[in-house]
Amino acid sequence: MPAVHQPIANSSHANGSATADLPTTVHPITIIPTTQTNTTINPASVPNFFDDLLHQIPLPLWAIYTIFAVGALLILICCLCICICCCKEKKKRHQKKDEKINLIGVNGNTTTALVQPDVADVDYGSTEQQRGKLLYSLEYNAALSELTVGIKEANSLKAMDLGGSSDPYVKVYICPDKSKTFETKVFRKTLKPIFNEQFSFQISKSSLLKSTVVMKVFDFNRFAKHDIIGELRFQLSGVDWNHVIEEWQDLAEPTKLEEEELGEICFSLRYVPTASKLTVVILEAKNLKSMDIGGFSDPYVKVQLALDKRKWKKRKTSMKKKTLSPYYNESFTFDVTFEQIQRVNLVISVWDHDAMTRNDAMGKIFLGCDAAGNQLRHWADMLSNPRRPVAQWHSLLSAEQVNSTLSLKKKIPLRHKLPR
């Protein structure tokens, strides 16, 4: 019998029947198309990209361009500010480097020894902060028992204001008496003022040998306490007064050996020439001296006018209880003609009220054509700005200092003898 050949399909079916019980897992084949990316950007497509981006922003084109322009302007301003700050910082470092130079002077023995620092005496790298130099002169007249102190000029003063400058003036007095205090005029925005002012003190030869001349350089502030830049102290004992002393000296750090803080007072002045009215407004005081046992005082302010060194008119404020920083804001108006204003002195004094005993003077100050320094400047500002109030803070002095400087006559002449 001939052999019968089965089709391949049947044989595969037979084999499959043997494995029909086994589980089969069919994995799908994912065909990932490979695309070739072209890294070369067509320049012609860039404007189309920005145009599409601009059209997708829900704003009109003029608003978008305005925003871009403002942003560019802000970036430019920031860059300019950064450049300015860098320049200021560089200038500040340069100034600090210059402050390290310490100039050392020498004493002269000639008749008028104008002492300047020598190049060989320059001390580089000094860490001490320099306050500047002062040129002064001293001369004593034994026949008149008169000491003349000259404040010539200053140089390389320490900058006390934010703008890198100062408003310097010099205060001069003699210790331990300190009966008179003089001040130079104020120079605005300078570190090398030229004063050329002289002040005379009546002092005997015996007292001269026990005295010390004090010259303090201050920075003027109209509405705050005046900052001290530095000081000089010159002992008068053992000096050869046959010659005039004139020399430069470096300012030293200020001391408080004889300094007595009596407080400050703020008031405004206003003069109207057409109406012949002088208005004084006492605003406030601060840091007054404690006069009572409890550490406080009961202060009030007395306002007095003196005409030709004679007591003329006076008013006073209300009394504030138990305070060292009273606030008044009280106004006083006086009839003063334009001819009289040239001969009037205004005396401001602070008193402590006592119910059982006599009232005590806490501090005093006077302004007018006979004043000097800050007081004269305030008075001059009032006269040069008619009809406008001019306010300023002043440091109080002792009553003895003001009385000895002003030398008021106690007797008041009859009305018909008053100068007109």
UniProtKB/TrEMBL annotation:
PROSITE patterns: C2 (PS50004). It comes from the Eukaryota. The chain crosses the membrane at residues 62-87. SMART domains: C2. Pfam families: C2. The keyword Transmembrane helix applies. Keywords: Membrane, Repeat, Transmembrane, Transmembrane helix. CDD domains: C2B_Synaptotagmin-1. Gene3D superfamilies: C2 domain. GO terms for molecular function: calcium ion binding; calcium-dependent phospholipid binding; clathrin binding; phosphatidylserine binding; SNARE binding. GO terms for cellular component: axon; dense core granule; plasma membrane; synaptic vesicle membrane. This is Putative synaptotagmin-1-like. It comes from Scophthalmus maximus. The lineage of its organism: Eukaryota, Metazoa, Chordata, Craniata, Vertebrata. The gene is SYT8.
